[in-house]
TrEMBL record:
This is PTS sugar transporter subunit IIC. GO terms for cellular component: plasma membrane. It is a multi-pass membrane protein. InterPro entries: GatZ_KbaZ_carbometab, PTS_IIC_man.
Length: 298
């Protein structure tokens, strides 16, 4: 299956839009999970899109930058991984390790280039401010979107339009002569979400909320065991009795998420009750264990 011209056009346009959404619009369409969903819709393979997008979202959970620092462009990596995975029949895990993560890392360079190019319009805005030219300020502010969009659109377009043969050759090698490497990359792609969780836990105050962490882990483990047991039992009974309908389902992840939400709500209410007691104390009282700042209004 080849990537059609209209798919290349739509994916390139979305690549240019998603960085603007991340910088200014904030509709959450710039998140990897949405990048996977939208790319999957365009490519006609929503399942692959959600797997790659969700895995990439988990991979970058703990990745953050401050100030003007550049970070990996997980969205562009997700777009290309979904496109080539759907077109060439790559497994989502292999596409994640061989395409999504490397492309996301390489796109740091185009992000830096966009920042440099955007300083031209920033200086023009400064000049228009001195001239009290408000229309000029608005115009140059909007023109600043151009280098940001092109920094994503051009690489994604070139990769989709001209990189298909190269990616196909690499995939063929990974599935034949270098199958050992392809299998290793598939395993690495499956492990990457766990790496994202590990990075996130490094920044979260785990010791402070250790009881919640333990309870959540135990509940999830119990539910997995119960649902797996019920599913296995239902499968065995349906094999013995043809009239038995196996209506068992897998563990609902929404239920696990709601457990986490319940703990978060309880902790939030607890923090609201504690804040009035700290109102008369010094600002140092707001800095609690592990250096976590309880209140951002110091």
């Amino acid at each position: 299956m080849e990537i059609l011209w209209w798919q290349i056009a739509l994916l390139s346009l979305y690549a240019g839009y998603q960085i603007l959404d991340e910088l200014q619009i904030y509709s959450s369409l710039s998140q990897p999970v949405f990048a996977g969903l939208i790319s999957g819709l365009i490519m006609g393979d929503i399942k692959t899109g959600l797997i790659i997008g969700g895995s990439m979202q988990l991979t970058i959970l703990g990745v953050g930058t401050f100030g003007g620092a550049s970070r990996i462009d997980a969205n562009s990596g997700t777009i290309l991984a979904v496109a080539f995975s759907s077109a060439l029949g790559m497994s989502p895990q292999q596409a994640l390790a061989t395409l999504a993560v490397p492309v996301a890392s390489l796109m740091i360079q185009t992000d830096i280039l966009a920042r440099f190019a955007n300083t031209f319009f920033a200086h023009r805005v400064d000049a228009k401010i001195e001239q009290m030219d408000y229309k000029g300020i608005e115009r140059n502010f909007l023109l600043g979107m151009v280098p940001w969009s092109l920094s994503r659109m051009i690489p994604v377009f070139l990769a989709l339009a001209f990189g298909g043969k190269l990616v196909k050759a690499v995939v063929n090698y990974l599935n034949t002569d270098l199958k050992w490497l392809g299998d290793g990359l598939t395993v690495a792609g499956a492990v990457l979400p766990a790496v994202g969780f590990a990075i996130l836990l490094r920044y979260l105050p785990v010791r402070k909320h250790l009881p919640h962490f333990i309870i959540g882990f135990v509940l999830a483990a119990i539910f997995v065991t119960i649902f797996d047991g019920i599913s296995g039992l239902s499968g065995a009974v349906s094999g013995l009795d043809k009239n038995f309908v196996n209506a068992s389902t897998n563990l609902p992840m929404l239920a696990i998420a709601l457990i986490g939400l319940a703990f978060a709500i309880m902790e939030y209410k607890k923090s609201i009750e504690v804040k009035p007691k700290l109102a008369g104390t010094t600002t140092s009282a707001n800095v609690i264990e592990e250096g976590e700042i309880e209140d951002d209004e110091l």
